[in-house]
Amino acid sequence: MADLVSHPDEVRIVSQRFGKGAADIDRHLELDGYKAVRKALEMKPEDIINEVKASNLRGRGGAGFPTGMKWSFVPKESAKPKYILVNGDESEPGTCKDRLILEHDPHSVIEGVIIAGLAVGAKVGYIYIRGEYRYLVDIMRKALADAYAKGFLGKNILGSGKDFDAYWHTGAGAYEVGEESALMESLEGKRGIPRIRPPFPAVVGLWGGPTVINNVESIAAVPHIILMGGQKFADYGPPKNGGTRLFCLSGHIVKPGVYELPLGYPLKKMIYDVGGGIPNGRKLKAVVPGGSSTFILTAEESEQMNMDFDSFSKRGEFLGSGGVVIVDDQTCMVKFALRIMKFYQHESCGWCIPCREGTDWLKKTLTRFHNGGGLKKDIDNIKYLAQNMLGRTFCPLGDAAAIPTMSIVDKWRSEFEAHLEGRPCPFEPEGSVKELPVLA
Amino acid sequence: MPVISEKLDQFFDAKMKEYPTKRSFLVPMLLYTQDEIGYLTDEAIAHIAAKTDLTELEVRNVISYYSMLHKRPMGKYHVQVCTNISCMLRGGEELLERCKERLGIGNKEVTADGTFSLEEVECIGACSWAPAVQVNYDFHENLTPDAMGVLLDSYSKRTGR
Lengths: 440, 161
What we know:
The structure holds two protein chains of two kinds. By secondary structure, chain A is α/β, with parallel strands linked by helices. Chain A has helices spanning about 25-30, 35-40, 45-55, 65-70, 100-105, 105-120, 135-150, 180-185, 215-230, 230-235, 265-275, 300-305, 310-315, 335-345, 355-375, 375-385, 395-410, 415, and strands at about 85-90, 125-130, 165-170, 210-215, 245-250, 255-260, 265, 285-290, 295-300, 305, 325-330. The radius of gyration of chain A is 22 Å and the shape is globular. By secondary structure, chain B is of the alpha+beta class. Chain B has seven helices and four strands. Chain B has a four-stranded mixed beta sheet with strand order 2-1-3-4, covered by helices on one side. In chain B, β3 (about 135) and β4 form a beta hairpin. The radius of gyration of chain B is 18 Å and the shape is elongated. Chain B starts with 5 loop residues before the first helix and ends with a helix. The interface between A and B is large, with 58 and 42 residues.
């Protein structure tokens, strides 16, 4: 089981029950469990939505779309059933927070699903957990069964006259299924191929019905927002960036772990104070701010950044998923770019040609380049290929592959140049790159 | 002889009722079937296709999309080593090398006795506890190459080999 960490700057809202045995429903109830559901049952649907809007909660999967606004897009009247779908297909490299929520507080997710259902008029919710997280599927299965046994789910929940069913579902290994439209395809028993939008899922989603899709962390924040009030949650973060989020520190850092910090927390402080700095007396070279799909920051840039959505979006960049990966000065950025591209090439579903061909071509070029077979023209060609995937695919996987690649070429061009003309990678021990370069 | 146990079949029947279409539970059904019988055999595919009113081809199309689904036997212990960025920075590639040496097999191969198989996998959500591996569904985190060797030994002993 994953170890828990703590730091005095943490503000524990979503993680307040971590390490307290709250996967057990009786323990959860002792810790104010299901009080938010009772409260929401007394509220009008529009008041629930307004409370979530007031909280400034933005999607914790990475896109940062305002959750309350997403809920408000669901039509009041619908001929087809409406659904709530929780995205627990956590697989963005660097991100390991939903795992802790599902392990330590599965009932907060169930509570969030019920409240979302009450808000938009849905009577069924699905909790999709990635296939690799089987132990969490088992925890969730038990949590759901316990919630049914206590009358929190099923017919006439808590004697309210309202019905709500929540079910678990699992994947079988696919990064792309974490994208909302591919997630719906997978839940419908198909290959996880993205759907074109519009129509958006809030209008046409699962089996054609209006569907709210929220990340595990977003939905787990909802019961806390209902209990404390939206404004109070909002006040923890800067304007339009409500509350706290779980930041996953990993890579070259002294104290890796998942820390719940207010949005807008300074990245420099996160690295050196919360994370204890860079180990082995080395220096910081790069920071992946929120999963491998985000623009990569240089050490200098990272010192000026605050970790909220708008601080990044005003630079044309993204805060992302909360997966903060720290990279030290002994790391080869060409190899780093290659490893990222290898991932996207593996995960591309092949539906959109720019992504299918682009990721494969880039992986080949970067492999050859890192092995010492790079040509000067390759450097611009890598950036050109990446740029040509941007905005040309049904889902953001193509963008996700392009963004880190472009930023590495722009910011660490000198490292590419150091690999030119058959020179071995300057960061590898001599003789360790064995494959001979093959020129295209 | 039935392809899967009656218990598993009944579990599938119950779960299928939670969705408006018959095929919706297909992906978990394939994974749980594999867990019980080892891999997705032709007989299992035919059984599931019949159960979900799909053609076998439609089921095979779905199988080929998901990286955890296998159409050939894997080892009793399927060792999955993550080498994605967070694990790479903390020695994931060295773990993979140690596994290759210790088991004498390459990526996606199975040992001759069928005890182990090895796979280099993408991010498994253990980034803050890197480097990490999964053996079947069990996570093992904060590993070193030596600890990896000890871990493999402990699995070997479970089978008495």
